[in-house]
Amino acid sequence: MFGLEFSHILVLAAIALIVLGPKQMPQLARILGKTIGELRKAMREVSSQISIDLEDEKPSKKSETSTKVSKDQT
Questions:
Q1: Buried b vs exposed e over 33-72: b needs ≥16 C-beta within 10 Å?
Q2: Among 28, 2, 3, which residue's Cα sits nearest to residue 15?
Q3: What are phi and psi of 48, to 5 degrees?
Q4: 7 exposed, middle or buried (CB, 10 Å; 0-12, 13-18, 19+)?
Q5: What separation in angstroms does the CA of 63 have from each of 52, 60, 69?
Q6: Separation between Cα atoms, residue 74 and residue 72, nearest integer Å
Q7: What sign does the CA torsion over 53, 56, 59, 62 have?
Q8: What is the pLDDT of residue 35?
Q9: What is the residue-level pLDDT of the chain in tens, covering all 74 positions?
Q10: In the chain, which ranges are continuous DSSP H helix?
Q11: Residue of 6, 13, 67, 74 with fewest CB within 10 Å of its CB?
């Protein structure tokens, strides 16, 4: 995960606990979880839209090719 080892994550969590305090840590974790979930959802939507757009382009290229072939044969 981003090139971080488990020990690095523990150090970052300890620093966050010291800086923010134990009362704000659950709130921060909740906010981070929601943000990461929303980012993943947005990435899935963009990825699926790109896939749909690519699928829409494939038939149009085939029809252009078949049109060129039929013109060349006549």
A1: eeeeeeeeeeeeeeeeeeeeeeeeeeeeeeeeeeeeeeee
A2: 28
A3: -70, -35
A4: exposed
A5: 18, 5, 10
A6: 6
A7: negative
A8: 95
A9: 467 788 998 898 889 889 988 888 889 889 989 999 999 999 999 999 999 888 887 765 555 555 555 555 65
A10: 6-20, 25-73
A11: 74
